[in-house]
Design goal:
By secondary structure, this protein is α/β, with parallel strands linked by helices. Helices cover about 40% and strands about 15% of the residues. Bound molecules: N-(iminomethyl)-L-glutamic acid and fe (iii) ion.
């Protein structure tokens, strides 16, 4: 049974999928594919098949972890207080810069394998814990090598405006200029990232700084995406839409103007319930407003050491349903077709249709609603990557 066309999920009962050279070539009722000459027929025993899951927002590559800050937060400190006191992203930057390439690769691989076991076949990986050109390139190279060694498509993103690195304290403008004039050209020339991301927030960067960097990204042929309206409303969603951003992410504080601008630009709303949960936020992203404006909604783990140490894609789907009020169908579309769109890959992954990669999950469930229902569902029974069991 195959989600993929027609009604929200496009469920095909008693379906079959024809695969050739790693791609889907035909999908339909088993009877419709009866005449199809297959070299091999693999019966799935009536199981549910979904597109391989797409985790479109992660920060998988970093040194150390922040369990100590988690403990501080449990004792009453807030994420913003810890960040302003030099902890937060800055502490992971220090651990990441100090880590060897092998340490970075090994720890990220372990996290990636957890996502893969959960059903992920495409994963976006942001840099953002290096914050100088050489260190950011190192992280993007780690992401790239993970995509070569593991059965998963890796989509690397340059997250240059994540936090102000300590060596640029009181020299914000110089850091922003360095990112725009040196880091982005270097990353674009080496083709190490598909898009450029930034963190628009009082504890991070302001809209005029982000504009400078997005202008450079545009000039170098890179798409943009933005961490926007997570802890406060800074007009990030509107800014992202003005640059035709692939996505605006978090969005707890999104307002009506922002939602309308995103709809107009086709910018996907990426909701990150793991960060909402771990920070014990109270304000939920305005899901109804997004629906009313027709903004496509994606879900991601946001796996990162600070705000979302989440290693399970189906847990993200469950949280999106329970905490944000998405329907299980919306959550599934949020981790497949809409997540692919947030990566600009809707023609390649995230749905089961001719021409798409044959990336599939075979689940031991009775209905697709179970993917949102279970808390801590183990991964799929079978995971097919590029037409092969993996
Ligand atoms: O997506 N918001 C900024 N980036 C991450 C947090 C990163 C960190 O705290 O290390 C996020 O939530
Ligand atoms: Fe993030």
């Amino acid at each position: 049974m195959l989600p993929g066309r027609g009604d929200p999920l496009g469920v095909v009962l008693n379906g079959a999928i024809a695969i050739q050279d790693g791609k889907v070539v035909r999908v339909g009722k088993r009877a419709e594919l009866a005449g199809f000459k297959a070299a091999e027929v693999v019966p799935l025993g009536g199981a549910w098949v979904t597109p391989g899951l797409v985790d479109c927002h992660t920060h998988l590559v970093f040194g150390g972890n922040r369990a100590d800050e988690y403990a501080m937060r449990r004792a009453g400190a807030s994420y913003e207080e810890i960040a302003r006191a030099g902890g937060g992203i800055a502490s992971t930057v220090a651990r990441t810069r100090a880590a060897s390439a092998t340490e970075l690769l090994d720890s990220a691989r372990a996290r990636l394998r957890a996502l893969i076991a959960g059903g992920v076949t495409t994963v976006e990986i942001k840099s953002g814990y290096g914050l100088d050109t050489a260190s950011e390139i190192r992280l993007l190279n780690v992401a790239r090598s993970l995509g070569k060694s593991e059965p998963v498509r890796v989509v690397p993103t340059l997250l240059a405006l994540h936090a102000l690195p300590p060596e640029y304290r009181d020299r914000r403008d110089e850091y922003v200029a360095m990112v725009a004039d040196e880091m982005i050209p270097a990353v674009a020339n080496a083709k190490l990232a598909a898009s450029v991301d930034a963190f628009c927030e009082g504890i991070a960067f302001f809209p005029h700084e982000i504009e400078r960097v997005f202008d450079s990204a545009e000039n170098h042929g890179l798409r943009v995406r933005l961490h926007a309206e997570q802890l406060s409303n800074r007009g990030g969603a509107k800014l992202a839409a003005r640059y035709n951003a692939l996505s605006a992410d978090h969005l707890e504080h999104l307002d009506e103007d922002g939602a309308a601008a995103m709809a107009e630009a086709g910018t996907v709303a990426v909701l990150l319930p793991g960060a909402f949960y771990a920070l014990q936020e109270k304000r939920r992203p305005p899901v109804r407003m997004l629906r009313d404006h027709g903004v496509p909604i994606a879900i991601a783990t946001d796996c990162n050491p600070g705000t979302s140490p989440l290693l399970s894609p189906t847990m993200a789907m469950n949280m999106a349903c329970t905490l944000f009020g998405l329907t299980p169908e919306e959550a599934l579309m949020g981790m497949t077709v809409n997540a692919a769109r947030a990566l600009g890959l809707e023609g390649e992954v995230g749905s089961i249709a001719p021409g798409r990669a044959a990336d599939l999950c075979v689940w031991n469930i009775e209905s697709p609603a179970e993917l949102g229902y279970w808390i801590g569902l183990p991964g799929p029974e079978r995971r097919i990557f590029g037409g092969k069991d993996a």
